[in-house]
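Dear colleague,

As promised, here are the two records you asked about, laid out in our usual form so they can be pasted straight into your sheet.

NAME FIELD: protein one
SEQUENCE, THEN STRUCTURE:
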Amino acid sequence: MTPTTAPLNAPATGQPLVVPVYDVAARRGNSGRGGLRGASSLVLAAVAAALMVVAAQMVESWTDGHLLAAWMVLWLVAFASLALLAAPARRAVVLLRQGAREWSAARRRALDDERTWNAALHDARLMADLSRAMNGIAVEDLRRYRF
């Protein structure tokens, strides 16, 4: 591969496998996870902190003789919440991100439909195309749902 035909991000070497390796490395860098671990860690830390506050308020009423037991209970609550709530926090973040992505796509489609409809109001050919398409969809629905 000559330096003039090599991609900008690839080194100018004469080896043919260098460019595909760099392409794979670049694709793996953008694997689509984009902060999932950070977001789930943040949710997990927030839930664990809330549980620690509740446990601290419950333990606060104990007398001074049980200070070691109170300290042990607080640490038990902290570690148990981290261990038991890691997977649910990760699932919650995944569901929230998926819901936000779907909402964004639906909103984008609605805006595109509105733009197309507004354009069709001023163009008879486009309105005829839309009418034909909607009639075809209606006919397909009727064929599919026969009684």
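NAME FIELD: protein two
SEQUENCE, THEN STRUCTURE:
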Amino acid sequence: NKMGGGMHALLDRNVEKMLSEPWGAASAGIHYNKQVLGSLCDQFSRLEPQARRGALQGTLFMRQGQRVGLTAEVRSLVDLASGDKDQWVNLIARALGGLTERFDLRQLQQDVPAVADALASIRGAIQAEGTPDTYRPLEVYNHNITTPPTTPSREV
């Protein structure tokens, strides 16, 4: 249990920094246990929004064997985050909590403005740029090869 205790201390000390890094959630998630999740729940409201998001995302990187005994702890974390003032924390928590229920994107767009905004900007970008070149049919690229020259060139 010495290793688990060490990780607990490390997470307590560096939790915010670690969980705010792009892959921090993945690194932290594989070390989640009752102590670590309990500690995250205790500290949750004090963490920066990016770290709160990371704490939730970390649960996605838990191994199957880890997950078995930690359902209640994960649920506590998700419940804590569900009413969060940060829209993305709220969204991630709802998505995690909703894994058992049907995921309703339309309802989510109404409840979480950031989702509606993100979807609108994605749709806008697609409309503005049209179809990217990578999706052009192959014939367009092969046109010069397959079409015979209109006037035969005779070299003398």
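A couple of things worth noting about protein two: The first helix runs from residue 2 to 20. The chain has a mean pLDDT of 74.

Best,
R.
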